[in-house]
Amino acid sequence: MTRIGVGFDGRSESRHALDFAVALARGCDATIKVRSVIGSPLTEREDAVYDPDWLRQARACATDELAEALRGIDADITGRVVAGVTVDALADFSAHVDLLVIGSRAWGPLRRVLVGSTAARLTREAHCPLLVLPRSAATGEPAEREAAVADGTPVVAARSAAGGA
Predict the structure, then answer these.
(1) Higher-pLDDT residue of 58, 112
(2) Residue-range definition of the domain harbouring residue 132
(3) In a domain? residue 134
């Protein structure tokens, strides 16, 4: 393992994933690549409420937040901000790393049905092994009891490149 990828959105769960990846990279002398994805703020296509300057502002904010998170980390680390659908962008990113580390908010089954789950979808779409750190590992707060399972698969899952869990 020479390249560890991290999905980063600035929340405590992704900061914990970054910390974990840094410690892991030090142990195996790997480089770290961090990807932050800017998704659309709109749930409906309504051009009247879309601010054309939004993407530039969101990218600037995400770039500043990522730079702050990476500042002071003593490791071979790079970061990049991209725009797109989070799961799709991270799945594409996973083709270029040996391990992808993400944090999970574990919002529970109702929220997952309404919003979807990045971690659950990535367990099926990642091109490399995936390490999902549960919300409780980052915050000390337990996740919802039902969140321990996503589609019958444990939320904390390692997925092989061949597609097995």
Answers:
(1) 58
(2) 3-41+50-154
(3) yes
Q: Are 107 and 155 in contact (CB under 8 A)?
A: no
Would you say residue 163 lies in a domain? Answer: no
CA angle 15, 139, 96 (to 5 degrees): 30
165 lies in some domain: no
**Proportion of the chain above pLDDT 90, given as a percent:** 48
C-beta of residue 104 within 8 angstroms of C-beta of residue 139:
no
Distance CA 106, CA 148 (A): 8
Q: How many domains does the chain have?
A: 1
9-45 pLDDT tens trace: 998 889 999 999 999 999 999 999 999 999 866 554 5
Q: What is the DSSP letter of 49?
A: G
Q: Say what the pLDDT of residue 133 is.
A: 86
CA–chain centroid gap for 59, Å, is 17
Q: Are the beta carbons of 109 and 124 closer than 8 angstroms?
A: no
